Amino acid sequence: MRPVSRTLVGGLAAWLVVSPSVSASPERWDGLHPDAPPETAQFAFLIGEWDCTIRQMKPDGSGWSERRARWTGYWILGGWAIQDDWESPAPGGGTFRGTNIRSFNPRTGKWDNRWLPAGTLQWAYYEAEKRGDTMVMTGGEGRDQAGREFVDRNTFSDIGADSWKWTKDRSFDGGQTWTLGVAFIEARRSEPPR
């Protein structure tokens, strides 16, 4: 993983928080810009409104929790990138929100992804690439509740027009070995309002 300038990340995070055009209602676009790298369409399956069911291993490993969430994806920057927003019940009550910004990097042939959860203003960096019929994101370094450093691998699979799946694996040794399936999401396209 490459380090990201704290100044750059902090500046972008501050801009996202105070910019009325982003925080209130981001400008959305109808599709991929004709001059954008064609690979930019690889994450286009996220465009739209998604109802999600999440199964996640409890932090102490004693079992599973399950909850519902809403995932909303849309084109940004004139069709050069994709942004997707997450909203779910927070474990202690209230609502947990976050946003991803995804852009294809033609120099590396991979995706640059940034995840920003509300309330932290700490960007997590992921690198992603298409592998066969899946999209695989690796990164999001952090510490779990026990203080152990980790890196995540999130895999989108079974991608269809109206559904897809997501699996999180976690490594505590820098990606040498993985604990498989610590969280799962099943997403179904939301029914349009009647």
Describe this structure in words.
The chain is 9% helix and 51% strand. It is mainly beta and 194 residues long. The chain has one domain: Lipocalin. A ten-stranded antiparallel β-barrel has the order 1-2-3-4-5-6-7-8-9-10. The N terminus is likely disordered.
CATH class: Mainly Beta
Shape: globular
The total of helices stands at: 2
Mean pLDDT: 85
Helix proportion: under 10%
CATH topology: the name is: Lipocalin
Kindly provide the radius of gyration, computed on alpha-carbon positions and rounded to a whole number of angstroms: 17 Å
Order of secondary-structure elements: HHEEEEEEEEEE
Number of strands: 10
Low-confidence stretches: 1-25
Please state the structural category.
mainly beta
Distance between the ends: 46 Å
Strand content: over 45%
Taking the sheet with the most strands, its summary is: 10 strands, antiparallel, barrel
List the helices and strands and how they pair.
Elements: H1 6-18, H2 20-23, E1 48-57, E2 64-76, E3 81-89, E4 95-105, E5 110-117, E6 124-131, E7 134-143, E8 149-157, E9 163-171, E10 179-189
Antiparallel strand pairs: 1-2, 1-10, 2-3, 3-4, 4-5, 5-6, 6-7, 7-8, 8-9, 9-10
Keywords:
Lipocalin, globular, mainly beta, 9% helix, disordered N terminus, 194 residues, 2 helices, ten-stranded antiparallel β-barrel, 10 strands
Short account of what is shown:
This protein has 2 helices and 10 strands; from the N terminus they run ααββββββββββ.
